[in-house]
Amino acid sequence: MAKPRSPSNHHVRGPSDWHRLSAPRREAHYRALRAVSLMRSEGLTLTSAARVAGTTPRTVHRYAEPALVHDRGRYGVTSGDRLYRRMTVYGPDGRVEVDVRGSRAASLVGGHHNEISRYLATGDPRYLTPFIGKRVGGVELLTDIPRIEELAARRELDIDDIYPRT
User: Fold this and answer.
1) Which residue of 43, 60, 117, 150 is 20 to 30 Å from 79, comparing CA positions?
2) Is 66 helix (H, G, I), strand (E, B) or coil?
3) d(Cα 89, Cα 93) in Å, to the nearest integer?
4) Distance (Å, rounded) from C-alpha 24 to C-alpha 108?
5) Cβ neighbours of residue 124 under 8 Å, at least 6 residues apart?
6) What pTM, to 2 d.p., does this model score?
7) Along the 166 residues of the chain, how does pLDDT read in single tens digits?
8) What residues have CB less than 8 Å from 38, skipping those under 6 apart?
């Protein structure tokens, strides 16, 4: 008889675990991370955050259990985590996939994407100032205005997609 899978069997600890995931499991991983993010940023319950992220509480447990805390029958989320994420960043060479460990670095990537979008909408380069010299996954975040304009003109900026296409 096959041994039942425990939720922790899907925990992605690094690039080798990531590359072994099938495309549907990678999507499930991203949705679980999105639910954790919603719990932190919006104060949603696990059930509500999972629903908004398009997944289930069980899937969030499978892929993001270290970010969850259980207190008096309810699940909450830690203030930060060290979970592995494969993310898309924009560096001097354009779009690059990098290995990101932790919610703080992931937030930096998300903020960078948001501020590139804001710059493109307003033309105000001050939005990019906080990212000058910052690196994520060994890649310096793109803040060079002419390069951003060039990538935007060639439609090579997909700033709404911080996770790689599976």
Assistant:
1) 117
2) helix
3) 10
4) 26
5) 118
6) 0.85
7) 444 344 445 779 999 999 999 999 999 999 999 999 999 999 999 999 999 999 999 999 999 999 999 999 999 999 999 999 999 999 999 999 999 999 999 999 999 999 999 999 999 999 999 999 999 999 999 999 999 999 999 988 876 667 776 5
8) 44, 48, 49, 52, 53
